[in-house]
Amino acid sequence: MVSRSLRSLPHGFRTSYLNYEALTAQLEAWAAEYPTLVRLQRLGTTPEHRAQWLLVIGPEPDRLRPAVWVDGNMHAGELAGSNVALALAEDMLRLHLEGTVHNLSPAVAERLREVLFYVVPRISPDGAERVISSGRYLRSVPRDERRDRGRPRWISADVDGDGLALVMRVRDAGGEFVECPEAPGVLQQRSIDDKGPFYKLYPEGFIEHFDGHTIPAPFFLDDNPIDLNRNFPFSWSPSHEQAGAGPFPASEPEARAIVEFASQHPEIFAWLNLHTYGGVLIRPLGHAPDNKMEPSDLALYRQIEEWTLEHTRYPSVSGYEEFLYEPDKPLHGDLSDWVYHHRGAISYVVELWDIFARLGMPRPKRFVEYYDRFGRAELRKLALWDRDHNASRVFRPWRRHHHPQLGEVEVGGIDPRIGLWNPPPHELAELCQQQARAFLRVAALAPALRLEQPEVLALGNGLYRVSVPVSNHGYLPSCILSSAKKLDFNEPVYVDCEPVGCELVDPAQRHLVLGHLEGWGRGLHSGQNLAAYQRSSGNGHRARAVFLVRGSGELRVRAGSCRLGFREETVRVS
Questions:
Q1: pLDDT at residue 548 tops 60
Q2: 177, 201 Cβ separation under 8 angstroms
Q3: Which domains does the chain show, CATH number per domain?
Q4: Quick check: pTM over 0.85?
């Protein structure tokens, strides 16, 4: 009955893209059907009064324990992130309800049942709604609160009344674009051998402060100046140094809600930030090469890359070494970097949807060069793929229109929503499955605090020595990352003791700090499999809290930390 009920609840996110109403209905359906496993709450409320939904999955959501975070759709047009986030939520529900999912091993499934999931399927609901309904280009949010708006600029709008805001082309002998002979209507970069007609290409819309003859160059943040992924506090820089940064760190309510929540939840040890497109995992460091990274952190990311390659075929790249748009110019205000450096968690970006593989493009030396090296041949392949496999969603027909500022134009052209920014709907189910298989293994890396069998030794004269072993049975250490030990909130494991009917000889033993506990994992390529030198690192995964007690009674022991949660046990002393 449980399985049939779960199968009856999806609102189509594995086969289609959901607007805000449908996404909300999906979350509410889960919360209503499984109140002991699902909590739905507002992380924040957007300026257009939509909820920034947070879904909490796991029994006893208020019980502190290791947790993971999954988010998507920070950038307005990158809708597939929402679908994958919802799929991960459903998969975790299935795991709790049915015992397994994706043929996970019993060991992985058992570990996952102890991990809390925080899922924010749509960081920018206002932006996504605008893209879904109008097709207009929008980086993150549909607002412009700048006061310095006197310069001429493009404002996106539906100029021909068809409900969409795409692009416009204008015949111009100085145009940079020409039609592709093999794909009429598809524009390509002009070469010296081309014979016209040539075209200028502009966003569909109007020029604000138009002087009647000067046409400004379009800029991707002309009328939507915020890029939420430049608005987070790590290494933030102002807009004149980092486009899209916003007026100050976490100035935007969508970003601020995340910062406030994460800062109050140190138990988050892994963070998946879902974007599109490219088919790649982007990991820290974003501001320095790998030789500046903690070796144990790097080994851990190598392990994650192995799973990602196995289940998704996506490679893992350094944000600095392979994903800077300009050499030696790191991005600032990035969410994933903030999580890694300020919250001490495993964090990375997945750029969903590998259109480059669909077109057979060879991988360049630096992954980011895929975006620059998209040439004429690739454009022709894209046009054919769009026609044969994407129902011609990307390349729309051109329609003549009289523009009040530019005169005769043609409107239509490229609609990047499905096929470029996001995969065709029929590919969503496989995409969701692949990403879930990879990330659920990351979630199973959680540290696992345990209280082992206590020992009570009678010393005579009514004195007892009580020893309580505290251990970590999980892959990760209690500090999560070696690089995170320096963070103030990353407290070591401690033990509180409350005697009942007896007393501590030394009252200071009511609170004992044990230190951080190692995990058993070592990442990948750490040398541990080299047969000639296989050795353990000792028993740093275990520590003992020792109490000297006078009289018979009980000791109520509570061990843990803000990142691991707590374990409690009552020890009989007699």
A1: yes
A2: yes
A3: 2-131+226-353+422-443 (3.40.630.10), 144-223+358-414 (no CATH), 449-573 (2.60.40.10)
A4: yes
